[in-house]
Q: What sequence folds into this?
């Protein structure tokens, strides 16, 4: 593939905070039109990377190209391509949904005739009619997040960055947000997603990068990353509750190993993305 097939390119990306190195020479490419997931323990560098790639924070070394624009040479053109949804809700809580949409459109300097046309398009597309006059504070957490995303795409960005978008949401609201992300992606928007939920990355993402201590230590499809350990996992739990994980290329060899165990409980299952994450980092995603 040529560089034109990638909407995000980072080469040898470095970011320091005083003497602390937050990003230590990251290389990353995200294809146009894919959902790319970014996993890592707390403090691994996820949010720093997202803030740089989404043009919110400067960096100390390396090259970043967003939709063909080098951030050190033409950051303003890159900004037009980007929509950002951060962990905290960035809407004006004293305004209605409609007022927030209009305010965000004004911020992006969308001409008035196109502004009203775009707002009407989004209202119909996301069935917002019954919420237009609702103040932000009156909405549920799930709807606040949905409106945040809608306001972030009002200028039709080609890339949307979502930094842990479903934190604090219940299961139903999380699934509704997954549907919204898939809908945006189906219409051609590239999605860059950080998450603490392994199952979210497994369910949504075309490819996943794993970052630890400021370096990307793995990159690939969820299935390829999982199966790099082995297609099947045997979890052997002893009477004291301690579990040992072993990985095998097929069910037959996994069963053979499981049948050889004489103490405790044995579980044989498909290897998943969480297994890969823990084996690579030695930690759970929330550590």
A:
């Amino acid at each position: 593939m040529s560089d034109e097939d990638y909407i995000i390119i980072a080469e040898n990306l470095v970011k320091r905070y005083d003497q602390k190195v937050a990003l230590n020479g990251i290389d990353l490419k995200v294809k146009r039109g894919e959902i790319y997931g970014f996993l890592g323990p707390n403090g691994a560098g996820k949010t720093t990377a997202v803030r740089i790639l989404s043009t919110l924070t400067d960096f100390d070394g390396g090259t970043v190209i967003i939709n063909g624009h080098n951030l050190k040479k033409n950051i303003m053109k890159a900004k037009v391509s980007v929509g950002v949804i951060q962990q905290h809700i960035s809407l004006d809580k004293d305004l209605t949904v409609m007022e927030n949409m209009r305010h965000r459109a004004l911020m992006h300097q969308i001409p008035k005739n196109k502004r009203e046309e775009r707002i009407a398009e989004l209202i119909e597309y996301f069935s917002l009619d019954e919420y237009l006059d609702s103040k932000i504070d009156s909405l549920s957490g799930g709807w606040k997040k949905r409106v945040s995303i809608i306001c972030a795409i009002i200028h039709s960005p080609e890339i949307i960055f979502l930094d842990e978008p479903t934190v604090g949401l219940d299961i139903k609201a999380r699934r509704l947000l997954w549907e919204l992300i898939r809908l945006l992606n189906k219409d051609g928007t590239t999605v860059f997603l950080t998450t603490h939920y392994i199952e979210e990355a497994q369910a949504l993402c075309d490819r996943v990068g794993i970052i630890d201590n400021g370096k990307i230590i793995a990159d690939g499809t969820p299935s390829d990353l999982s199966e790099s350990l082995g297609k099947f996992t045997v979890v052997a739990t002893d009477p004291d509750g301690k579990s040992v994980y072993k990985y095998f290329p097929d069910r037959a060899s996994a069963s053979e190993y499981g049948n050889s165990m004489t103490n405790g409980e044995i579980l044989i299952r498909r290897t998943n993305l969480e297994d890969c994450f823990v084996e690579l980092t030695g930690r759970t995603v929330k550590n």
Q: What stands out?
A: The chain has two domains: 3-221, 230-270.
